[in-house]
């Protein structure tokens, strides 16, 4: 075990972890930030998506020890005073069914819209295809991403 300093949601946090501990487990077990979900454990489903330096990343497949110089943002840190435009769109269109994948979906959509603020429907579909929704809310997810893009422009 070693001590690492991480910047999570704008705050410095010190954790004592093994070098290979995935960020997901540090967030959930060490920092009690449970909005980021475990899905597959191999970076394929998107439930564990967070932002690392503003870029969407699967937290289950990156060691937290490699992120000491990075800014990590979880769903809990995405907005502090009011909902983000993506969260507003999700709420307005009543996107979630079970809700399990939604934090990862929102984090992916937010990062995508920062890179492509005026996407077409195919851009949205391509950007979101790596996030699995067991409830098959894909149509509402895509509509919410489009609505969020309009809100952000």
From TrEMBL:
Signal peptide: none annotated. Pfam families: Fer2, Fer2_2. The keyword Ubl conjugation does not apply. It comes from the Bacteria. Residues 2-78 form the 2Fe-2S ferredoxin-type domain. InterPro entries: 2Fe-2S-bd, 2Fe-2S-bd_dom_sf, 2Fe-2S_ferredoxin-like_sf, 2Fe-2S_ferredoxin-type, 2Fe2S_fd_BS, Beta-grasp_dom_sf, Diverse_Oxidoreductases. Keywords: 2Fe-2S, Iron, Iron-sulfur, Metal-binding, Oxidoreductase. GO terms for molecular function: 2 iron, 2 sulfur cluster binding; metal ion binding; oxidoreductase activity. Gene3D superfamilies: 3.10.20.30, [2Fe-2S]-binding domain. This is (2Fe-2S)-binding protein. It comes from Winogradskyella flava.
């Amino acid at each position: 075990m070693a001590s690492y300093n991480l910047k999570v949601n704008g705050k410095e946090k010190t954790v004592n972890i093994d070098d290979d501990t995935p960020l997901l487990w540090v967030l959930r077990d060490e920092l009690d930030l449970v909005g980021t979900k475990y899905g597959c454990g191999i970076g394929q489903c998107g439930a564990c998506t967070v932002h690392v330096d503003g870029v969407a990343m699967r937290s289950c497949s990156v060691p937290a020890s490699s992120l000491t110089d990075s800014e990590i943002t979880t769903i809990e840190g995405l907005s502090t005073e009011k909902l983000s435009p993506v969260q507003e769109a999700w709420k307005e269109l009543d996107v979630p069914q079970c809700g399990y994948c939604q934090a990862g979906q929102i984090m992916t959509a937010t990062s995508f819209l920062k890179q492509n603020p005026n996407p077409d429907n195919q851009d949205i579909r391509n950007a979101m295809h790596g996030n699995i929704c067991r409830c098959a809310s894909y149509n509402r997810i895509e509509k919410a991403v489009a609505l969020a893009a309009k809100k952000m422009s």
